[in-house]
Design a protein that fits this description.
Blueprint (H helix, E strand, L loop, with lengths): L6 E4 L17 H10 L2 E4 L1 H4 L11 E3 L2 H8 L4 E3 L6 E5 L5 H18 L7 E2 L6 E5 L5 E5 L2 H13 L5 E7 L6 H8 L8 H15 L3 E6 L23 H9 L3 E3 L14 E5 L6 H7 L4 E5 L10 H4 L4 E3 L2 H13 L19
Parallel strand pairs: 1-2, 1-12, 2-3, 5-6, 5-9, 9-10, 12-13, 13-14
Antiparallel strand pairs: 4-11, 7-8
Helix pairs in contact: 1-11, 3-9, 4-8, 5-7
Length: about 350
C-alpha cells in the first residue's frame, strides 16, 4: 500500500510581532526542520524571506498570503513548477542609485543562481507607500497609486510573459525611531510587513499569479546591539534576493484540478501561533478534516485564540513539540499513549 504524501501548512502571519517569524526570516529554521518531517510543506513569504538570506527546499511551496487564503477555501489549487519567469517591478519613487542596487541584485541572481528574469518595469507613477499601525500594534499600510502597480504588472505579464511578479516599492525612511529601534533589537512589530502584504495581495488577487515584495530603504546606521533575529536585514542595500529565489519555484495557482496539483482537502495539518487564529486561512482549515496545531510560546501582538473561536486544536508549547505531533500524525499514531497518563474509553451517549 502506498500512502499519499503527508502535507502540512506552516503559517506565521505578517506584521503581528510574532516572537518567532516576526523578524527577518527567523521562522526559516522552523520551516527547514518541518520540511524534513513532512512530504510537502506549504508556507508563505513571511516565513521564508530573510533579505539576502534564503534556503532552497525542494518540498516547500512558497505561497503568497492571499493565494494561501484562496487555497485554504478550496477555490485555488497549487501547481508545482520547475521554474518561473520572474518579472520585476521597481517603484518610480526609488532614487537612481538605490534603483541601480536593486537591478544589480536581480542580475546577480541570474548570474550566480541561474534564475530566469524578464526585463524589469518601472511604475509610471511613484507608488507612495504609507505605513500604519493598528490598535493591537499590528502593522499595515496603504499605496497611494495602486493603479500604477497594476499597470506595471499587466505589462510584465502580457508583454514579457512573466509567470511571477517581484515588487520593490520605496518605503518611508522616517519610521518612528522607537518602533524601528525596538524591531532591530528583537522586540515589537515589523513596521513594514503589513504594508508589504497589501502590495502582494493586490497583484495576486488581480492576476492570480505568484507575487512577493521587497521594500527599498536607505541602509541604516551600524548598530552593534542588533538582535540576531533582525540581523539579516542589516547585510546590504536590498532585501530582493530571497524574494526572487522564492518566486522562481513558487507554485502556480489553478482553478481546476490538474496533474500533480495540490488542493486544500489534501492538507493533513496546519501549524500556527496560538494567539493568531483569526485569519481567513486558519478559519477555512478549521472547518475541514485538518489537524490544527497551535504554538503557545510563539507569542504575537494579537489575542485571537482557538478558545475564543470554539476551534478544536492541539495546543503545544513550542515548535519542537509541534514537530513531535506531526511525526506521530504522519505515522498514524495517537499522541495519547505518548503521555504518562491515558484515560479509559467512555461510553458514547445515546
Amino acid at each position: 500500500m502506498i500512502n499519499r504524501p503527508y502535507t502540512a501548512v506552516l503559517i506565521v502571519p505578517t506584521g503581528i510581532g510574532a516572537a518567532i517569524g516576526g523578524y527577518a526570516g527567523d521562522a526559516l529554521p522552523v520551516a527547514k526542520v518541518m520540511a524534513k518531517v513532512c512530504d510537502r510543506l506549504i508556507t508563505h513569504p513571511n516565513v521564508l524571506n530573510g533579505a539576502q538570506l534564503y534556503w532552497p527546499l525542494d518540498n516547500v511551496f512558497y505561497v503568497e498570503g492571499y493565494g494561501l487564503d484562496r487555497f485554504a477555501q478550496g477555490r485555488w489549487g497549487l501547481k508545482p513548477v520547475h521554474q518561473n519567469r520572474v518579472g520585476l517591478i521597481l517603484d518610480r519613487g526609488i532614487e537612481p542609485e538605490l534603483r541601480t542596487r536593486h537591478i544589480q541584485a536581480a542580475d546577480a541572481t541570474r548570474a550566480t543562481l541561474g534564475l530566469t528574469l524578464t526585463d524589469y518595469v518601472v511604475t509610471d507613477t511613484p507608488l507612495e507607500v504609507e505605513l500604519r499601525t493598528a490598535d493591537s500594534g499590528a502593522s499595515w499600510g496603504t499605496i497611494g497609486h495602486p493603479e500604477s502597480l497594476l499597470r506595471a504588472a499587466d505589462k510584465l505579464i502580457s508583454q514579457s510573459k512573466a509567470e511571477a511578479i517581484a515588487v520593490v516599492a520605496r518605503f518611508p525612511d522616517d519610521i518612528d525611531s522607537l518602533v524601528l529601534d525596538n524591531y532591530r533589537h528583537g522586540q515589537g512589530v515589523d513596521p513594514l510587513a503589513g504594508a508589504e502584504a497589501v502590495i502582494s495581495h493586490l497583484i495576486v488577487r488581480e492576476f492570480a499569479l505568484p507575487c512577493a515584495h521587497a521594500p527599498a530603504l536607505e541602509p541604516l546606521p551600524v548598530d552593534e546591539e542588533i538582535s540576531p533575529r533582525s540581523a539579516a536585514e542589516e547585510l546590504g542595500y536590498t532585501f530582493l534576493p530571497c524574494v526572487l529565489v522564492g518566486l522562481s519555484r513558487a507554485p502556480q495557482f489553478v482553478s481546476q484540478p490538474q496533474t500533480n496539483s495540490i488542493w486544500a482537502d489534501e492538507v493533513d495539518a496546519v501549524v500556527i501561533p496560538h494567539t493568531a487564529c483569526g485569519g481567513s486561512a486558519i478559519l477555512s482549515f478549521s472547518g475541514a478534516n485538518t489537524r490544527i496545531i497551535t504554538v503557545k510560546d510563539n507569542t504575537t501582538a494579537l489575542n485571537v485564540t482557538p478558545e475564543d473561536l470554539g476551534m478544536e486544536v492541539i495546543a503545544v508549547n513550542s515548535y519542537l513539540e509541534a514537530l513531535g505531533v506531526l511525526v506521530a500524525h504522519k505515522a498514524g499514531i495517537s499522541i495519547d499513549p505518548l503521555r504518562p497518563i491515558i484515560s479509559s474509553l467512555s461510553q458514547a451517549c445515546d
